[in-house]
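so i finally got all the pieces together for this one. its two components total, 589 residues if u count the protein bits. some of the lines might not be protein, just check the labels. i wanna see the whole assembly predicted at once instead of chain by chain like last time, that was a mess tbh
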Amino acid sequence: MKLAILGAGPGGYVAAIKAAQLGAQVTVIEENEVGGVCLNWGCIPTKVLVASADFLARTRKSEEFGIEIKGDITPNFAKIIERKNKIVNTQIKGIRNLLKKWEITLQQGRGVLTSPHEITVTSRDGSIEKTESDKIIIATGSSPFQLPNLPFDGKRILSSDDAIALKEIPKSIIIVGAGVIGCEFACIFRNLGAEVTLIEMLPRAVATEDFEISDILERELRKKKIRLLVNVKAEKADIRDEGVHIFLNDGKEIAADKVLVSVGRIFNSNGIGIEETGIQKGVRGEISVNEKMETNIPGIYAIGDVAGGLMLAHVASSEGITAATNLMGGNERIDYDSVPSAIYTSPEIASVGLREQRAAEKGIKVRTGHFQFRMLAKAHAIGEIEGLLKIVSDEQSDRVLGVHIIGPHASDLIHEGALAVRLGLKTKDIAGTIHAHPTLAEGLMEAAEDVHNEAIHVPRK
Amino acid sequence: MNPDDLRYHKEHTWVRAAGKKATIGITDYAQEALGDIVYIDLPEVDTDIEPNSEIGEIESTKATSSIISPISGKVIEVNEDLSESPEIINEDPYGKGWIAVIEIDDASEIDDLMDSSEYAKYVEEEAK
């Protein structure tokens, strides 16, 4: 079996390795660098920035921990970016090595489907090569969405790609869109000392999360003195020497050194031979796939962001494994109901499954359990007491339907919840599992107990 | 220990009326129960407050708790000092730890609240 994969992001390269493990002869075609948006412009670079920003924020409260630092503590953005580049490069090498070990051919260039069994690749030097294969996986990802009234110029009006390549920390920044990316950058820039204004057309920040979680995030943003304006749109930008002025639809005018536009992402489904090959697209421009990740053309699969599902690196990887397994004769499908997601704000947010506000519209009767991080001794010891763990469970069956966490290490704590949702465990199963003390994970046990008002460390109601 | 010139709401807030204005805060019992206060989410000036509604939130090292306004009206001033030093509430809940000044909507709401001895009894009952 010869397989060609268009795109070496977290979808494409994982699919390549999986298919190679199953015996396929694999070629991966990548225009930029392996690792895709996730490794080069997204998840990983921003997490390196988050680490530096958090380090600075913690260092500034070192006296609370009995540590006296003499002299100034200042961020050096050039060095932060240098560290980011080093980490990204190490990961790139790692992926390249993995591909090599599995004898996967990495073809560098821009690939276009020229038939259901052929991809034409134009490399940077202009040379053209054709790659023939039995089957194809399209994993071309997505790009930052550009607002027509706020076009990116890379200098004053930035995309998230531009933001991770800045030379210095802006004195002030307006971030358009208080979703996942916007809120992460708001915390990064604020912790590094910038004045941050977030504007959002919806009534709340991270509006897709459980409302109790986004309420707490909004409070944490206020604590950091990040200005959040909701129910408002940016109508136009006026770029002046001293700063960018943004005119809002409520008549207000705000200004800052830079503007970051993070209002979503668009599918990279144009100019790669989709229409010409007869592959169907959905209304949003995504490539349509069935449960097996196969398009309407047998033998052609699409995975990751371009396939229109949840735009998460780990979902792309999982879809890659599913597609690779299926095209090698398997019959796998993905359970999207138990996909965890994480937002690297400070504090972090992580969630899986049903949001409480969605239960009513879905006609599901639920119970909830809550536990505040500040009730945990461990949270006090590490000096991070903000946040909440919340469980949403089915009133009748007691099954865990959703877990929502905002607080320290939320992104690592969520997986117990993901396992519970995926396996249909009951809150009693979590409550009945002994959790080590002192840990942050105890909070989930207490939240599970709280569903039935049995939490030990919650004041009597 | 609870000043006699104040009126008290069952959600452990107090009000001190002076003409058309009233200053509000949380009671000594509330600050004691919360423990070390680390943050307060203050209402915004010009906010209209409904009777018995939440006007902000208080975080201590042990709990987060809503602040329920004892009366309705319009917020005309907030105690900005609390943003930087919320612990003032622990130190002086009836004085420097005031939270907001409200333009009184309906003076009869204040009469309906508890006086200091009624509040003292109420707290005693609640503590049981």
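DSSP finds five helices and nine strands in chain B.
The first strand of chain B starts at residue 7 and ends at 9.
anyway lmk what u think
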